[in-house]
Design a protein that fits this description.
328 residues, 11 helices, globular, two-stranded antiparallel ribbon
Length: 328
């Protein structure tokens, strides 16, 4: 017998469509890991016509910027607070997340973020699910699902994780840090909108000169984003950087900026490769994203200091037709 609730496939497919309206969301982010989470957090807070950010969760990470998952989570927590202060948005609640990855032998990792997610999701009407936007390691979200499996039918997970199905492997940072948690998300039956990194979201490049022109002049948070970008490389000549995490917010703002379709939820091998299984429940797989309208939307919103004029506009698609919002 499955640990997770069984969601009727017709209902699941409906939940995998873009909602076509403003949604309630929480953002799970390893904000100190890289520079893209800061951009995504700002973009979400500047998009109130599309999303209502109810809470922010600090996700664990472990790389050169931390001494371990707990340290990465704490640094991310403090980075979230810094950005909220710069934006005068200290009204948004922030929760510390898991201090470790999921154990191999099962069970969840205790954390305020996971507990809060359970509380918010269980308070939802299943017909009006909570959108869980995850732009880091998925430990907090998986822990919440293991704490209370019933939330799987009350949430929609929008996750930047893994690489394109055409990639030779999926040893991407968010997914491979905690493969156990990644498997929980794909196995539990919850609706998942997957935005792969390599081969899909890797289109979202920008440069120091563009950030100088369109981000720096927009006030304290623009100055902070510019300085963060400038400090990310010692040499910006002929250099661009991928701002991966904005893609999740962009899909909620306007799905016409992406192409997507439904595919069976993949399995993940021990060596971090996708395993296709046609018998599995569907997820929505984003296989292309238009770069120009996403950055154009962010730049306009920063220039207005949070206004909503033009939100969801089509922007420049580089002469390529079609958007594929609904998918199959």
């Amino acid at each position: 017998m499955s640990l997770y609730p069984e969601i009727n496939e017709e209902r699941l497919v409906r939940m995998l469509r873009h909602p076509g309206r403003k949604v309630r969301m929480v953002l799970d982010t390893d904000t100190f890991n890289e520079i893209d989470d800061q951009f995504a957090l700002v973009y979400a807070l500047l998009s109130p016509d599309s999303v209502e950010v109810e809470a922010l969760y600090a996700a664990p990470f472990y790389n050169k910027n931390s001494t371990g998952p707990a340290d990465g989570m704490e640094k991310s927590y403090l980075e979230i607070l810094k950005i909220l202060k710069l934006m005068s948005r200290e009204d948004v609640p922030v929760y510390r997340g898991s201090a470790a990855y999921l154990p191999q032998d099962g069970g969840f990792v205790e954390g305020d973020a996971a507990r809060n997610l359970v509380e918010r999701a269980m308070a939802c009407d299943p017909a009006d699910p909570l959108y869980v936007v995850a732009i880091g390691c998925i430990t907090n979200v998986a822990s919440a699902i293991l704490m209370e499996p019933a939330i799987a039918e009350r949430i929609v997970i929008v996750w930047l994780g893994g690489h394109s199905f055409a990639w030779p492997h999926t040893r991407e940072f968010n997914l491979s840090q905690d493969i156990v948690a990644s498997r929980v998300v794909f196995d539990c039956g919850a609706p998942v909108i997957l935005l792969p990194c390599g081969g899909v979201v890797s289109h979202l490049h920008t440069s120091l000169s563009e950030v100088r022109d369109y981000v720096l002049p927009t006030g304290p948070v623009g100055e902070y984003l510019f300085e963060t970008f400038r400090s990310s490389s010692d040499d910006h000549f002929a250099y661009t950087r991928i701002i991966w995490d904005m893609s999740t917010i962009a899909w909620l703002v306007n799905p016409e900026w992406t192409f997507s379709h439904l595919v069976p939820s993949p399995r993940i091998s021990d060596d971090a490769r996708w395993i296709k299984d046609p018998t599995r429940h569907p997820i929505r797989y984003i296989y292309h994203i238009y770069r120009n309208p996403v950055f154009g939307d962010l730049f306009r919103k920063l220039a207005r200091g949070g206004g909503n004029e033009g939100e969801g506009g089509g922007g420049d698609r580089g002469g390529v037709g079609g958007g594929g919002a609904g998918g199959s």
